[in-house]
Amino acid sequence: LETRSGNWYLNPSESWFRVKLPNDQTGWVSAENFIKTKWTNDLQINSGLVRDVVKLKLPKDAETTSWSPDGSKMAYFANTSDRNIYWMAQSIWVASANGSNPKWVSDGAFFNPNITWSKDGEWLVFENLSGEERQIWIASSDATGLKKVTIGEAPSISPKGDKIAFVRRGKSSTSIWIRDLNNNNERKIAEVTIKGQQSYIAYGYNANFNPPSWSSDGSLIAFGFDGYHYDDKYTRVALIRISGGIIREFAVRAWRMKNTELSNDGKKIAYITHEHSTKEANDVLDKQVHFTSIDDNSSVRSYRHSEGISWSPDGRYLAFVEKSITMGINRRVWILDTQKNQQIQLLTSRQEIEKVAWIKNDKIVILARTSKQDLSESAGAIGKIQSWLVTIKNLPA
After folding, report:
1. Model's pTM, two decimal places?
2. Cα–Cα distance between 197 and 230 in angstroms, integer?
């Protein structure tokens, strides 16, 4: 609730507010559930938490933008096509953080929209489809050093930039591999047999995997396996040793895994699932954010109608996007304080926010997809993706 004059805000009493509800009844609400808000640059921000909002001028044709860990550079796909059943881009670019000085990296057939960076921001890896062959490529952040690395998909470069974790998909199993960039050796570190229906494994069903997520010390990765791998049709998040072997699996009653992220402190994991495990229409189980500590005794917390996860650099906070049911508001961005188990609203928007990227402890990038109506009204004056840089203040100590 927003503090304001009139019927909603009556009088404070210590850390509680007495409020008048729409049915004319009154009640008491904790002061921490009230926030002061204001509109700035198309976002309704929590003015007690947000210091500043700057709208970024991204290249007009930028899609699925990915920032380097320090926030100084960005990479994006361009020349996208929605004419086919699948999303596809025809070129990849790098630019400065605000989208200026774009440099072309490569042309190709890019069906997987994921780009991952080394921790120092010097290298990025991505997937290209050449004919029927899925290829993994690496390039430097100055748009040079382009090189084909291996055959596979969903690549993710290690924090030190010396290894790449990637996926190989077979007819009867899905396996996780490590490629050592120093000596070009490859080894398989995990394999999961496919026990579900073969029809769901076709390219048409699952055009791409999300890349594995590395621990900050480079000793573990996390990867999400879709439900068709298992008899019970539940998805699994697997924690895998780089030396080989699955340590632990987290099972979720859902059919597909959308994204997986280990926190930078190596203690927690967040992931996104969607679709019902029995392929039934069920809005409750569509696009949920899940969070847990990786220790065996912890429980999983879940947030409905949510996606777009990103950990703070210190590993304490998790930012995510919730689809709003409030009239006039399409999305809410939340910050979860994992130490206090407290959910804090960062901002709301009429725009269809689909991604957040926590690039520094006090800075978060927000990305929203422009509606078709806005695109037609602007006659191409703006791109498909809008973006804001939000500077945070006063996070709980």
Report:
1. 0.87
2. 10
